[in-house]
Amino acid sequence: MAVYNKKFMKRALELAKKADGRVQPNPYVGAVVVKDNKIIGEGYHKKFGGKHAEPIAIDNAGESCEGADLYVNLEPCSHMGKTPPCVDKIIRKKIKRVFIGISDPHKNVKGDGILKLKQAGIDVYVNILREKAIEINRKFLTHLEKKRPYILLKYAMTLDGYIATVSGDSQWISNEKCRRIVHQKRHNYQGILVGSSTVLYDNPRLSARNREKGFQPKPYILDMVGEIDNLDYNVFNRKAVLITPSDIYDERGMVKIYRFDKKKDDLKDFILEVFEKGKLHSLMIEGGAKTLSFFMENGLFDEVNVFISPKFIGEGVNPLKFNGIYKIKDAIEMKNIEHKSVGEDFMLKGFRENVYWID
Fold first, then answer.
1. Which CATH code, of 3.40.50.10860, 3.40.50.2000, 3.40.140.10, 3.30.750.24, is assigned to 6-137?
2. Annotated binding-site positions for substrate
3. Taking the complete model, does pTM exceed 0.85, yes or no?
4. Which of 79, 80, 82, 39 minimizes the C-alpha distance to 62?
5. Model confidence over 317-334: pLDDT tens digits?
6. Around 116, how many Cα atoms within 13 Å sit in the side-chain half-sphere?
7. Which fold is adopted by the domain 148-351?
8. Residues tagged active-site
9. For residue 78, what are the contacts with CB-CB under 8 A and spacing of at least 6?
10. Binding-site residues for NADP(+), please?
């Protein structure tokens, strides 16, 4: 392995994180051009169909790229898509060495970018800060692997384990700092889903309000029993998706309605078909209890975020309600646990399987 400087890959990862949901279904990618141990150009992929990170970084470096190093967190593309192949520009600008976080498992790349760079006489090194490179593109990698969206389950609960009071009140269990974290996360998900009870009780907007002009996820409402009989709720004031067995109709054309037959349709399969039709690559699910339970019980989740507030309410709504597990050894156990204090509250994050599953 050639000598390299981790700080340059860290910078590429920092740049990649500047993107939001507008990039999807593409991956989050940042790149830096380095010469004489100094960054002379950098860039990141900002939106789907737009210029990729590598050409942006090379263009920003100007005419100084010959003999330089390129650091990029994902293998450069080698095929013609909405933009020309990145490898062509890297070769043409006479980059000497390319340091890559991870290879790209997409069928249109899959090592071909690395091969073309090597065939052009460029030294290529892969798996630089590999775990961090995987982490930043969990959504992209999971969709490729599982052929469904990357799904995050999120809820806030009291210290005695309730997400709402006996009256259904839940505003607000978590503190303002926690809510800001949630809104920041929403910018990076294509869709946000809640159940009908959340709409009826809370009347949420389901928007991301942290960043001005930031990406807005599309609302998905799962009404398993047909409770919603009108569309006069905040969430239906913009383009949204409603999954329901009822005959409700939207005369405005704002809400895409998918009707399932409770007697004939398998709800899990029906929902996955809706996600596929919507070309959904990432989804954040924020409740309520029946909805969270449905997705967990059916194994439709990849990550769980729980915000715990130091409050006691004695009795209320439990976050999860599905058929109980008899043996602790059979419990759904989270992996790669992360936790931190958020003011007086506490945030716990875990994953359904090892984050670093990619070969």
1. 3.40.140.10
2. 170, 186, 206, 209, 286
3. yes
4. 39
5. 999 988 778 899 988 889
6. 18
7. Dihydrofolate Reductase, subunit A (3.40.430)
8. 54
9. 85, 86, 87, 108, 109, 112, 113, 115, 116
10. 156, 172, 198, 202
